[in-house]
Amino acid sequence: MNTEFTHVLLNGRTVALSLHQGRIAAIEPRPEPARHVAIPLPVDPHVHLDKTFTAGRCKSSKPGLFGAIDAMETDMANWSEEDLRFRMGRALKEASDNGICALRSHVDWPGPQTPLAWHVLGELAQDWCRRVHVQRASLTPLDLLGDPDHGSRIAERVASDGEVLGCFVYRNSRLEESLEQVFALAARHGLRLDFHVDEGLEAEANAFDRIVALTARHRLAGRVLCGHACSLSIRPEREVARAAGAAAEAGVALVVLPTANLWLQDSSYDRTPRMRGLAPVHEMRAAGVSVLFGSDNVADPFYPFGSYDAVEVLRLASVSAQFDPAGWLDSITTRPTEALGLDRPELVVGGRADFLLIEGCDWNEALRSPRARRQVVRTGEIEQDDRVAA
């Protein structure tokens, strides 16, 4: 069956898209104004499915990141297989409904033993593989992963599952030694690396620089992703410029998480926050760093609101970092795809008909309101047909 979408803004011009057998059969220019905008199905490079949808039962007793960490650790007593399967399955359905085609979820790995959530998410990944490609990344304290015995066992398990090695890095006392161990593990097992790094507003937190240097030394360009890097927002501009240039040369990508960082950084119960905690995305991108955006936490102590919706994340990022979203569409599509090592999506003749349509004559109109109607198209099949008329 052939399907046609007319009046679509694609790559800056109005076209008609013709689909056949799950592929784009033709792209023809149209003289009329666009009625919808189109992008490849988004990819979310940084979420936490094990923590999601716990906000209603899990409250922080103190503000900021470490208050959220304490609250989450308390809630882990509730993480039965049934609980995890229900919450993570709900998240994957929401992501799928919003057009997400792939995501990377961090899974808390606080001790030497493989966590239950790792097993459950692995099973769910199989259940959802036709709609959402799920990658798992271990989220282990650096001191544990940097331990020669424990780190080796964790890396072996992650490698056997074909997943991603990750850790939380923030002003660790044995920073150099532990990071060296993590990179050695990645090299030994052929693993990609994903770091939560410098998630705070202390200028002395500069582990991002060390990760960049080690990436260059181990020649892991394109295989290392850093998340947060909040401290870059308050470091001197010359330091930021050096870090950005080095990251671009080393091939380290940066994922910025506006929801959780705006919610947690410079947080106080009785004072308006002065600092946003967002990494300097303009400077990073200008230097050649691949900048991505992710949903991060959804409905948990780290961010009690939100949804698995890359378009909404881009909207918030454009407001908080002050940029024109039309020029940053790759930050939720092609760039995260590359950072996760997946095939690059392209809306071209002969390519897979996987794309998101949003009602609007241009991207400003499409993103003006979260109520703009959308349509998800996967392998040429139209989903949620009541949202946008073709």
- Overall shape: globular
The count of helical stretches stands at: 13
Looking at CATH, the homologous superfamily of the largest domain is Metal-dependent hydrolases
Write down the domain tally. Answer: 2
Cα distance spanning the termini: 15 Å
CATH topology of the largest domain: TIM Barrel
The helix/strand order is EEEEEHHEHEHHEHEHEHEHHEHHEHEE
CATH architecture term of the largest domain: Alpha-Beta Barrel
Oligomer kind: single chain
Word description of this protein:
This protein has about 400 residues and is of the alpha/beta class. The protein has helices spanning about 65-75, 80-95, 115-125, 140-145, 150-160, 175-190, 205-220, 235-250, 260-265, 280-285, 310-320, 335-340, 365-370, and strands at about 1-10, 15-20, 25-30, 35-40, 45, 100-110, 135-140, 165-170, 195, 225-230, 250-255, 290-295, 355-360, 375-380, 380-385. Strands 5-6-7-8-9-10-11-12 form an 8-stranded parallel beta sheet. A 7-stranded mixed beta sheet has the order 3-2-1-4-13-14-15. Strand 2 (about 15-20) and strand 3 form a beta hairpin. Helix 2 (about 80-95) crosses helix 3 (about 115-125) and helix 7 (about 205-220) runs parallel beside helix 8 (about 235-250). The longest helix is centred in the N-terminal third of the chain and has 17 residues, at about 80-95.
Short synopsis of the structure:
With 390 residues, this protein is α/β, with parallel strands linked by helices. It contains 13 helices and 15 strands.
